[in-house]
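Anyone up for a design puzzle?
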């Protein structure tokens, strides 16, 4: 299992793939496979069979997971995707551990 720096409900920017440049909220995270589902990104089409009598089959668009290496956490101060660092959380400092932007050092 891989430790991810991006969590559920974070805003991320897609940095590679067909949805490059798009920004969205993380809906779900799968650390076992290093993937995440981002709102409005990487849709796939699925054909559904009719379940009840008289119902028609249809094509449904569903969000699919993308690799965590293809997204960067979005910093609202820098207004771009940034790398993430950690501050605090050690025995020497009394401050709680929190994520910070590597560019502007503001808490995310």
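Challenge accepted. My sequence:
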């Amino acid at each position: 299992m891989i430790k991810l720096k991006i969590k559920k409900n974070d805003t991320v920017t897609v940095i590679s793939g067909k949805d490059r440049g798009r920004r969205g909220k993380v809906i779900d995270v799968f650390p076992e496979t290093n993937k995440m589902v981002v709102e409005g990104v990487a849709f796939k089409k699925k054909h559904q069979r009719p379940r009840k009598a008289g119902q028609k089959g249809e094509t449904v668009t569903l969000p699919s997971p993308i690799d965590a290496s293809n997204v960067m956490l979005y910093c609202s101060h820098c207004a771009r995707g940034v790398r993430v660092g950690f501050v605090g959380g050690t025995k020497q400092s009394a401050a709680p551990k929190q994520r910070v932007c590597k560019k502007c050092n503001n808490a995310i």
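A detail worth pointing out: The mean pLDDT is 92.
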